[in-house]
Amino acid sequence: MASRFKKTVIRPVRDFLIYHSVHSIFVLSKFVPRKLLLWWHGVLAIFFYYCLGKVRRRIIRHLTIAFGPEQQEGEYQQLGKRMFVSFGKTLTDYMRCWKLTTREQFSRYFTYEGEENLKRAYEKGKGVLCMVTHTPGWEFSAFMPPVLGYKTMGVSSRIKNPALNKLMINLRESRGMANITRDHCYETLVERLKKGECLIIMIDQDSKKIRGEFLQFFGHEAYTPIGCTRLAMATGSAIVPMYTIRNDADDTYTFKILPEIPLEQCDTEIETIRYNTQKHNDVIEQIIREHPEQWVWMHERWKTTPEILHKYLENRRQAKEREKSNHS
Q1: How far apart are CA 157 and CA 119, in angstroms?
Q2: What are the residues whose beta carbons fall under 8 Å from the beta carbon of 285, sequence distance 6 or more?
Q3: Which residues of the chain fall below pLDDT 50?
Q4: Contact call for residues 106 and 97 (beta carbons, < 8 A)
Q5: What whole-number distance in Å separates Cα of residue 115 and Cα of residue 98?
């Protein structure tokens, strides 16, 4: 009874309030001067950084994993705070820019570097795997290729809040990005890549639900999705890294597109997958080293271990067997 009440009453009310709260922020942001909003959200970001002790300690722990012990006292504290502020201000601009859809409109805030790399790869006609890094502006990075005029699709997991899920899909589609749901989408991605489309793909976060390999990231094993390499092997698509950084000096952004990473063949399929995915990790690591305050250090990048993965896969196997037994 309690479960049914939660599903039929509490959850819809909660989803309604969350959606309209988020939507109201998008709308109200148009009526408040940008500089004032950026300043205020920067202050809020610092406030939450110091209030969220668990998150702050996680950030510092991850910076220590990546770069080793601090060279000077408070170095990682300041770096984490700068990342939080960058994240807060980028979110502010994402809300303010929800009506912008064209290159000309975005050019008020963005400069573009290396578009010739994407153009060259796109003109091959075999598709482009746009390997996006999780800087605070990753959502800008995701829809920037279609804004620049390249036919693009993105894969997303369904948000449990139906209205919020629809809002996010509409924001992407309004910029020209086709939204593909994650469930059983591999064949669809292969087919559309072979037709020459771009695919937004991110491999710099930990997820044991996605097929991956344990590879080096900042000198430590990190469970890394291998879908980018697998798709390149299946389609011949070019792999082009790209990312957005925020320029604190003038509150603008730079969307950077790096040269294509060539796919190299090894003796076996798994060796090819591991070797090339490691190259992708190395490129992402170099981007982060150049802009350490611009990556989401609160993410548990090194969380999954071989033991955790084995336990997860075994539990999933047993669950499928129980489900199969119940239906038989």
Answers
A1: 28
A2: 217, 218
A3: none
A4: yes
A5: 23
